[in-house]
Amino acid sequence: MYPGNPPVEALGGVEIDIADNEFFTLLGPSGCGKTTILRLIAGFEHPTSGTLEMFGQSLLDLPPYKRQINTVFQSYALFPHMTVAENIGFGLEMLGRPKAEISQTVGEMMELVQMSHLADRQTGQISGGQQQRVALARALAPKPRVLLLDEPLSALDFKLRKNMQLELKRLQTETGITFIFVTHDQEEALTMSDRIAVMSDGAIRQIGSPREIYDHPADRFVADFIGDTNFLSADVVENRDGAATLRLGSGRTIAARAAQGVNGRVTIAVRPEHARLGTPAEGLLAGVLSDAVYFGTDTHFHVTLEDGTTFVLRQQNSPDSTAGYSTGDPVGVCFPAEVAQVLRD
Q1: Strand partners, 244
Q2: Do 228-343 and 23-221 fall under one CATH topology?
Q3: Vertex 153 angle, CA 152 and 157, to 5°
Q4: Which residue ranges make up each domain of the chain?
Q5: Residues 345 and 269 sit within 8 Å (Cβ to Cβ)
Q6: CATH top-level class of 228-343
Q7: Using alpha carbons only, what angle is made at residue 273 by residues 303 and 160, rounded to the nearest 5 degrees?
Q8: Rounded to whole angstroms, how far apart are CA atoms 25 and 23?
Q9: CA dist., res. 137 & res. 215, Å (int)
Q10: Where is the ABC transporter domain (predicted)?
Q11: Whole-prediction pTM value?
Q12: Environment class of residue 9 by beta-carbon count within 10 Å: exposed (0-12), middle (13-18) or buried (19+)?
């Protein structure tokens, strides 16, 4: 904080319980506070109020080196003048572990991350993905109870990043160590996590499993941040104990679940893969097919609705994926009522 500047509240009212042997992800845009939480857990920052406990013990008075917590940063911070094996064993040497124990642990860690064949290679002579594995092995070698990972995949190319997502989950499962992972990438979070905390502006918007977060977002921010979503305005015709009847802009009505007491104008979310193209007569919404974008595994159909908004449908490709529909055709948008999520803004 610079002199004269008012203090900035990075986090407010955050409460999280993370289970032992869990892969827990903090997900959100830049500046939302997720790295601040990681730094608080590690001991690099100190909260102005609140508690921080691990297995029933307060961490607030413990310095970072006494917390049984290790961190893997975006930059792997490996020693270029050391070999792979020496890098992995460095932390154990600093802890004063016996040489025989260090040698055994280094061997186990290299086997765990599949780097045994490169033990004598200097880290400047290996690839980015291999460097990341060395950083992981070094952090895991002292057998911490918690491993913190601050966007460790951000420097990798797309294909290697996808491979390492599976690798990280394998390592967490095999070691039984609690992983707390920070990312702004929704795919990373959905692929690896047991649970996800979606964050915004220093607050937790929702905590749940990947399926819960994706299929039942708590609000519009979560629905928009996790995956692609179509938002529609609707009016609540009736709401009895959470069983609501909604009237869409097309005039058609659908039944949906809504929180008790929700009335008036609401927003509903429909995922692109939950809708399909049909005729204007059979669709809940009607419009014109304005574009079809081919993505290899699937095609995205863009429909301009009668009110001028765009609705996107995603359909898995097959030989007859586009049969019967061409750009400019009048079409209907069909989806089962149960996929419509009534959201609070």
Answers
A1: 239, 256
A2: no
A3: 150
A4: 23-221, 228-343
A5: no
A6: mainly beta
A7: 115
A8: 7
A9: 35
A10: 1-226
A11: 0.87
A12: exposed
